[in-house]
C-alpha cells in the first residue's frame, strides 16, 4: 500500500521506493543518493518545511549505511501535521550523500554527527568536520566493523 506522498511523487515521475509505514502510520520512503537533493527541494516546496531529525545507522557490517530524515509539513490551522521518513542508503566503500543543509539549515550538526560517527560524507555541506571525536581520531565509532582501540587509562582508573 502506498501513502499519499508516494502516490504524489509517482505521478510526477520522481523515482523512489515505498518501505511501508511505521507503527505510528508514518510513511517511509527510500530515495537514491543521486536523486536525494532534487527530491529534498521538491519536498520543501511541497510543504515539508521542518526537518524534525536526521540520523544515520550501519545496516550491516561491510554493507550499507543509511541516512534517515524525519520531515514534517507544518501548516497554520492544521492540528495533525503530515510526516514522512526518508531513508537514503549508500555503500560503505564510498559513503557519499548530497547534503540538504541548504534546504533545511537544522541538519547542520546532525549531518556532522553522522559524518563523525559513521563516516558518511555529505557533499556540499559547508562545515563537514568532526563534532564529537577529536580531529585526530582514526575510524568511525558507530560502524559495526569498528574495532575500538585499547584505552589503558580507563582500566587503570579502578
Keywords:
Beta Polymerase, domain 2, globular, 7 strands, alpha/beta, two-stranded parallel sheet
Strand content: 25-35%
Mean pLDDT: 90
Could you give the order of the helices and strands?
HEEHEEEEHEH
Structural class: alpha/beta
CATH superfamily: NADH:ubiquinone oxidoreductase Nqo5 subunit
Large-scale geometry: globular
- Unreliable segments (pLDDT under 50, ≥5 consecutive)? none
Rounded to the nearest angstrom, the radius of gyration is 18 Å
Strand arrangement in the largest pleated sheet: 1-2-5-4-3
User: Major β-sheet, in short?
Assistant: 5 strands, mixed
Keywords: Chloroplast, Membrane, NAD, NADP, Plastid, Plastoquinone, Quinone, Thylakoid, Translocase, Transport
Subcellular location: Mitochondrion inner membrane
InterPro entries: NADH_DH_suC (IPR010218), NADH_quin_OxRdtase_su_C/D-like (IPR037232), NADH_UbQ_OxRdtase_30kDa_su (IPR001268), NADH_UbQ_OxRdtase_CS (IPR020396)
Protein name: NADH dehydrogenase [ubiquinone] iron-sulfur protein 3
